[in-house]
Amino acid sequence: MGILVKSMGFVFSLLPYCFLEFATELLGLIFVLLPSKRRRLLFSNLKHAFPEWSHAKIKSVARKSSARM
């Protein structure tokens, strides 16, 4: 397992930054679109923490947070 992780890290280090940024944004979008317990918890926490925010802003922040995670 350790060899797999190290080899994947090496391959990722060779890829251009713009590709990796695109990949993380895409994964964040997929995470927000697919229903799961974590997605529901993320949206619930953001709605309770920032009740004055619109749904579009909460969705945007959730997507960015998921991509950075």
Quick rundown:
This protein has 69 residues and is mainly α. The chain contains four helices and no strands. α2 (17-33) crosses α4 (55-68).
Structure commentary:
With 69 residues, the chain is an all-alpha fold. Helix content is 83%, strand content 0%. The chain has four helices and no strands. The longest helix is centred in the middle third of the chain and has 17 residues, at 17-33.
Number of DSSP helical runs: 4
What is the average per-residue confidence, as pLDDT, rounded to a whole number?
92
- Give the terminus-to-terminus CA distance: 22 Å
The multimeric state of the shown protein is single chain
Spell out the key features of this protein:
69 residues, mainly alpha, elongated
Indicate the topology:
Layout: H1 2-14, H2 17-33, H3 37-49, H4 55-68
